[in-house]
Amino acid sequence: MRTRFLTRVLAVGVVATLAAGCSGGGEPPSTTGGNNGNDGLSSNVRLQDEAAPAGDPKPGGRLRIMIRLDANELDPHRMSETSAFVINEQIYESLVQSYRGEIKPAIAESWEQSADGLTVTFKLRDNAFFHSGRKVTAADVKYSIERIQDPATRAPRARSYEGIASVEAPDERTVEMKLDKPNAAILTLLSTAASSIVDREVVDGEKGLNGSVDGGSGPFKLASRVTGQGIKLDKHTQYWEPGVPYLDGMDFTFNPDDNARAAAVRSGTVDFLWRPAPEFIDALKRDEALKWYGGSGSLSLHLRLNTSKAPYDDVKVRQAIYLALDRQEILNVANSGFGTPLNAGYLPPDRFGALTEPVYDKPDIEKAKSLLAEAGYPDGFEAKLMVIATSAFQVRSAEVEQQQLAKIGIKVTIESVESTIADTKTKSADFDMYQSGFGLTYDPDERFTASFLAGGGLNYGNWTDAEYEALVVQARSELDADKRAALYQQAEKILAERGPVAMTFLNADFDVVQKNVMGYQGDPTPTYRFYRNIWLDR
């Protein structure tokens, strides 16, 4: 017997955060958290209200978007950078899509799950076309999921797909996905950009998807790419959703200079400034020529330790470092106080599965020194802390951490590198410490599996903990929401107490646009697929 699968995402705990995240054309207005810069709490609530329509969406025009850094990898199955997700969510589409806590149809117009939870059958829509002009088929879905699972692809999130036993295509519009065991996170996983369905003929012909041709079926297609300078996307005229997208195209430009980005949106050179630097947020909010959205956090920042080498393989050394950090000070300096200090695990306190009580409070320098002495480092040691040179908030975070760790005798040298170098060094475990961060995901499983399980593509330094892994794997198959949350809370405590990362803070994101940019309907999970509904009132 088969039952229609619920389209509501259960047990992911995003409702409170979503309600505090954004407002946009056609959606009810909502509040958001700016920040007072002192206590990490929401304040300074003000959002533009576009609930009253400015008229019917106008087709045409090109949206000029500026973000900080170009993506090193545009293959949706191999990407890990936030900028790649921003761009690829316009180019690629998955079987289903997530939006504000709900799973909705995408390439699949419907789906059913068997009574035992081990088979999910998707029915593909008949009017989904790749940018090559070829119709999306079940064979492409099978190819895409198997490509993600193939070790040769080196997909960072491959371990999240290990519970998919097989994917079959009995006909062009039917996909049957067999699971090893029930999976509470499966639809959420299949809604992500990392699960993009790709054109198998393009992939095989181009030998990859990081060049000048894409293999997507999303609302926009890759028109041109100049590495480090710009990416142009053109409207996909065969997109399945009637009338969408409204824009003729999107023009992405990249600039790591925080001053230059803020000046560009104020001068009208760009229409959409993605995540301005925190020190410019208040001034941009006051600019009457602009609109702003945001306030919810979507990026969980951390200090990553390489547990594959001494002394970071010693849990006492890691705990000493975690106890020495003042997370509120890091937030205040690095992000002008916009956000929430993370004194426990990866998840902020309002998310499903999160710890609500801190594991770390104010720094405990004496206890940290004692732990270092027990580990055989009574006088501390020297360490290198790698940061991406063009990321101002990373550099500021590292500078604060450098001063804080000096109090327990750890002499930190900051190593500033380009993003491509950082990518190479982390993947080869050639680092001591790394100032980094991970975007939040609808369901904890995707992040925990990729970032903290053995063999996870984002588990730099390959930290392993049998108890942690058992909890995460068990939670994936637990269909009772309360029991699943309790498993994640146990896992989060392990991560905080003996894991490879010192969580520091959850940032608060803002987007700033010109007054004639309409239809912004953000989702701070984050997802950027709502860009297809943006239009220009010109």
Automatic annotation (TrEMBL):
Domain of life: Bacteria
GO cellular-component term (any): periplasmic space
Spans annotated as Disordered: 21-44
Gene3D superfamilies listed in its UniProt record: Dipeptide-binding Protein, Domain 1 (3.90.76.10), Dipeptide-binding Protein, Domain 3 (3.10.105.10), Periplasmic binding protein-like II (3.40.190.10)
Domain Solute-binding protein family, residue spans: 102-457
The protein's name in its UniProt record: Peptide/nickel transport system substrate-binding protein
GO BP, one annotated term: peptide transport
Signal peptide start and end residues: 1-25
Cited Pfam families: SBP_bac_5
Gene Ontology MF: a single term: peptide transmembrane transporter activity
SUPFAM superfamilies in alphabetical order: Periplasmic binding protein-like II
Phylogenetic lineage: Bacteria, Bacillati, Actinomycetota, Actinomycetes, Micromonosporales
